[in-house]
Amino acid sequence: MQIELARAPFPGAPVLLLIAGLGGSGSYWLPQRAALAEHYQLVVYDQRGTGANQQPLPADYSLADMAQEIHSAMLHHGIEHYCVLGHALGGLVAMQLALDYPTAIDALAVINGWLQLNAHTRRCFAVRETLLRDSGPAAYLQAQPLFLYPADWMAAHQPQLEAEEALHNAHFQGQENLTRRLNALKTADFYTTAANIRQPVLVICSRDDLLVPWNCSQQLHHALPHSVLEILPWGGHACNVTAASEFNPMLIAALAALLTTESASHKEIV
């Protein structure tokens, strides 16, 4: 798997792995990269089956597979300890990494994630799958922004949305790959395992998220032993894109606080 490893901003800078959602593209994090690059050595990548890592996925592709692939890639580059920032599906992969490779993960941040797939979210995905199956990728991608962004933001950013739609059409991951990645997402279940995640976790959500109700993050926060919850009043599912000017400083401050707490806890244990 190809990953992009940025230059460290200073010696000993913590490594931060950025994991996008169902779209799978590392470019999703463009609104955060400049701000985060001052504090972390960033790692971004296109998930397997998408973008620069296009390849057919096995029928039984799972969240554990996603975690194993990226962790192996990190080890290949000599990275044994790192933090993770994940959006939606990426947040689920972050939690899987924390469970499967606990000594490697220092802290994680989960944006608009969940313990189990909410009935409303399942309905949204069913609608999107029907579009993909019956009308094809172009119709699926045309509808995609409706689930990601607030209506007023979309109305003010039509040229950007049209450009993104054209780009996504040109680099579509393929119906079979998308379906298999979506199946892995839908079957993910942290209801009984979240309590085993011992790392500090920043849980972030937006109250107006159309795809994943904000109370899913509230439930996740209550299930994680060492977590803090940040609730944005506006921004939709892709709140890190639509409200980046508010999101970025909040993320940087909250992550720094988590790492400081983790470092203090480690010293006490030692």
Explain what this protein looks like in three dimensions:
The protein has helices at residues 30-36, 63-76, 89-100, 119-135, 137-148, 151-156, 158-170, 175-187, 215-223, 239-242, 244-269, and strands at 4-5, 15-19, 41-44, 82-87, 105-111, 201-206, 227-232. Helix content is 49%, strand content 13%. Helix 2 (63-76) crosses helix 3 (89-100) and helix 5 (137-148) crosses helix 7 (158-170). The chain is globular and about 50 Å long. The protein has 11 helices and 7 strands. The longest helix has 26 residues, at 244-269. The chain has a 7-stranded mixed sheet, with helices on both faces. Mean pLDDT is 96; it is low at 266-270. The protein has 270 residues and is an alpha/beta fold. The chain starts with a strand and ends with a helix.
Short description:
The chain is 49% helix and 13% strand.
| Strand tally | 7
C-alpha end-to-end distance: 36 Å
**How would the global form be characterised?**
globular
What multimeric state do the chains show?
single chain
> What are the segments in which pLDDT stays under 50 over at least 5 consecutive residues?
266-270
Instruction: Please outline the major beta sheet.
Output: 7 strands, mixed
Strand content: 5-15%
Rounded Rg: 18 Å
Provide the structure class.
alpha/beta
Mean pLDDT: 96
Order of helices and strands: EEHEHEHEHHHHHEHEHH
Helix content range = 40-55%
Q: What is the helix tally?
A: 11
Question: Order of strands across the biggest sheet?
Answer: 1-3-2-4-5-6-7
Quickly list its features:
270 residues, alpha/beta, seven-stranded mixed β-sheet, 49% helix, 13% strand, globular, disordered C terminus
